[in-house]
Amino acid sequence: MEYSIEKTSPTSVSLSVTCSADEVKKAFDRAAKAIGKGMNLPGFRVGKIPVNVIKSRFASRVAADATEILADDNMMEILKKEGIRPLCPSQYHGSPAVEGESFSFSSSFDILPEVELPDLETLSVVVPDPAPSDDALNAMLDQALRRLARYEDVTGRKPEDHDLLTVDVRGTVDGKALPGMTADNFRLQLLPVQPGAKVPEMDPIVRALNVGEEGHGVMICPDNYPDPVLRGREVQLDVVLRRVQREVLPPLTDETAQKLGFDTFDALKQEVWQQTFASHMRQIQREGKTRLMEEQLEGKDFPLPESLVMRFYREHQRDAEHYLKKQHADEETIREILEHMREESMEFARKKAKGHTFLLALAEREGIHVSGQEAEDAVRAMTKGTGQNYEDLRKTIWEAGVIAAMQERMIADRALDRLYGAARKIMAESPTLRPFSEVKKESV
User: Fold this and answer.
1) Alpha-carbon distances, residue 87 vs 80, 172, 302 (angstroms)
2) Using CA atoms, how far apart are residues 207 and 190, in angstroms rounded to an integer?
3) How far apart are the first and last CA of the chain?
4) Could you report the per-residue pLDDT of 117-146, keeping only the tens digit for each?
5) Angle between helix 265-297 and helix 134-145 axes, rounded to 10 deg
6) CATH class of 150-248
7) Which of 102, 76, 77, 101 is nearest to 89 (CA)?
8) Domain 257-427 class, CATH top level
9) pTM of the entire structure?
10) Domain 2-110 has CATH 3.30.70.1050
11) Would you say 37 and 330 are in contact if contact means Cβ atoms under 8 Å apart?
């Protein structure tokens, strides 16, 4: 085997390979033996069919399999020898192999560019006090109590703070309903508006209605709406109030705690504190990792592998399409919105690819790997609790060719964990928190 490697750009490589006629013959023999293994043909014992018979009767299949053997085996050997790690499945270029002749093919694929990487020992990140706030603790406690809540219909008055409402809402621009802003039997809870906070657009509409009445108002289409053409436009809101309910939470007693599976109210409070603390720590880590990545990428400029950019572009478009279908948008509307989003999707893809490239380069320097078995275990974990069949999901992932991308994402995640784990955590100043102990058990 002879080969040559050409770096066609900072992020792409072209590989040319020539195999001798003897190597081609060995590949054909190997392919024929694999096909004949276990095969049953009249006149021959199972698995004992001569290689020449297999080559004659299944010529096209043998040639295809032999070509794949030559390309895959030689590619793997060369990449390992040269220390090259493709970022995407290689693109094969060449004709099928012919027994008795030499065989040449070429392949192209993306690679990581040169990326300036930090010294992990110099990193630091500012994080908030990990102690959960009083509001967060009480919200988590209410969430636990809500499992035993009862709901009373309210009549004879307009909606008030903490009421649960059922509404039909229709959001339109120029008379056309907007996906995501039109729904029947939509449930919402009226919450007190904090001083200086923005009042939700529907609040003044529904607060002026009695059950069965219809109200109207306007809102500005938000900046995160899928269709960029509609952002900032005035949306007409038509709202019908169908139902008003009052949520009644159970009292804070030992009996209530026992109904929730705890011996005492204090045990319930302890569990609430632990869960809230764990949730807060996860949030701190997410935000810390985001800040750390932003700091590392700021001012850095390096070429991006086109395969990564296009992968994230397609994902952004698919996510938008999935959202719009869930909102019952018609096919014409979906096509129109996705077309409007093309520039934004590409901007998103380049930003995502930049961070991904940085993390993969860091993983390569730090020797971070994910084995095939670890990827298989991740696929199996995806099926737990979903009722989805593991083998079906595994087959779908392999046939779609996304297992390599899945391993790549796992590597990037581990690199980000390494980055954040190495950074020195600097505690930000925070106000004094009111102790959760002030939440007292109620007497009965």
Assistant:
1) 14, 44, 16
2) 9
3) 87
4) 999 999 999 888 888 888 889 999 999 999
5) 130
6) alpha beta
7) 76
8) mainly alpha
9) 0.82
10) yes
11) no
